[in-house]
C-alpha cells in the first residue's frame, strides 16, 4: 500500500493524472507515463509538496536524481529542502572524474555514473526516480552513493510496481512512494 | 577503457577554483569586456564576460539590468569548465557544480522565475536532459505546465518530431501531441545554448502546434557560436556568457 496512513487527499488527484500506455516500449508492458502529471500544475505541485513535507526535516544534504525523469522530480525537491542536487547519469554524459555502477536489464546491462567529488561521507542522501520497477537502477544508485561513503536515508518514487518486488532489492533501505500500480 | 579527466570540483563552501580553470572575470557594467586572451597552446583560457544590457543591443539579453544582479557572480563562478570534453578542443561548461551550491542553484531559478512569473506563461518546455533540471522548478514556481522535449523513442503515445543538424548527421527532438494547445505562451529552457540547433528545433516543434514562444532561456550562452541567430524572431535570455 502507498504509505500514507490516512490517504492524503492529494494522492487521488495525482494518481488520476498518470497515463498508462499499453505495449510501450514493447508488447505486454503497461507504461506509466508521468508526463500527463506534469501538465497539471496543481497535481505536479502536490507531488513535490508530498515529498518535501516528508523530507525537509530529515537533514537530507543530497538529492540524487536518476536520469532523466528523476531529474524532473529530484531537482525541485532538492531546491525546496535546501539539499545539493546530484544527477546520476547514463554513460559518457558527465565530464570529469566519475565512478560507475553496472546493473542488469532484461537483456544485457546498463551503467549509471556519478561525479566522484559530488558526494562524500558526511552526506545523507535521498534517491529519487519517477518509478520503481525491478529496483535494479535504484540499487545501482544506492551503491554509487555508498561507495563514496554517503548514507542513503531513503528512496522516493512517484510510482511503484509492487509485483516486480523492487522494494526487496533496496538492502533494507526504506522506500516511499505515492502511488502503486498493480 | 574509461578516460578519466581529473579536474577538481569547485567546492561549494569555499568556491575555490583550480589554477587550471581561470577565475571568471566580472566587469563593471559601464564598459564592454576586452577580448578574451588566448594564451600559448599548452593552456587554453575561458573568460566569462558579463555585458551590460545597454552594450548588448545586438547580443542576447543578459540578466544584468542597470546594476548587475549580485547573484550572477556567484552563479558564474560555480560553473566548472572541463577542457577537451566530450572531445579535444571543446571547453565543456559543467553546471553540475552549480547544482551542488544550494544558494547558487536557488538564485539561478529565482532569476528566471522573477523574469517570467507575470508574463502569462502557461508552458515551460525543457530540453532533455539538463533542461529537466532547470525547467521543472521554474514551471512549478510560475504555475505553468512542464513539457519535456525528448530524444527519439522516449515518449510513449503519439508524438511529433523535428529533425535538426549536428556537426555530423542529424538528431531528432520529440514532444507529445496534445501536451500544448494553440495560443499557449511558452518559454523553452536548456542549460546552455551553443550553435542553437536544438533550441531552434524546439521552437519549430512548438510553433507547428500554434504555441507562441515568448523567449528561450538558458543559464549559459557561448556567443561565438552565434546560436542566437538560429532562433529567428524568438528572443534569448541568458544568465552568463562564456567566451570559448
Task: Report the principal-axis shape of chain A.
Answer: globular
N-to-C series of helices and strands of chain B: EEHEEHHEHEEEEHEE
The largest β sheet of chain B comes out as: 7 strands, mixed
Indicate the percent of residues in helices of chain A: 25-40%
Structural class of chain A: alpha/beta
Give the % helix of chain B. 10-25%
Spatial gap, N to C terminus of chain B: 28 Å
Q: Give the amount of beta strand of chain B, in percent.
A: 25-35%
> pLDDT under 50 segments of chain B (min length 5)?
1-58
What does this entry look like structurally?
The complex is a heterodimer of chains A (182) and B (244). Chain A is α/β, with parallel strands linked by helices and 182 residues long. Chain A is built from five helices and nine strands. Chain A is globular, with a radius of gyration of 16 Å. Chain B has helices spanning 70-77, 96-99, 102-116, 131-142, 197-208, and strands at 47-49, 61-62, 80-83, 91-94, 123-127, 145-149, 159-165, 170-176, 185-193, 212-221, 236-243. Chain B contains five helices and eleven strands; from the N terminus they run E-E-H-E-E-H-H-E-H-E-E-E-E-H-E-E. In chain B, 21% of the residues lie in helices and 26% in strands. Chain B is an alpha/beta fold and 244 residues long. The radius of gyration of chain B is 18 Å and the shape is globular. In chain B, strands 1, 2, 5, 6, 9, 10 and 11 form a seven-stranded mixed β-sheet that branches. The chains are: A alpha/beta (182), B alpha/beta (244). Chain A binds chain B through residues 19, 21, 24-25, 31, 33, 35, 38-41, 44-45, 48, 65, 67-69, 71-73, 75-76, 78-79, 82-87, 89, 92-98, 100, 115, 117-118, and chain B through 2, 4-9, 12, 80, 82, 85-86, 92, 94, 96, 99-102, 105-106, 109, 128-130, 132-134, 136-137, 139-140, 143-148, 150, 153-157, 176, 179.
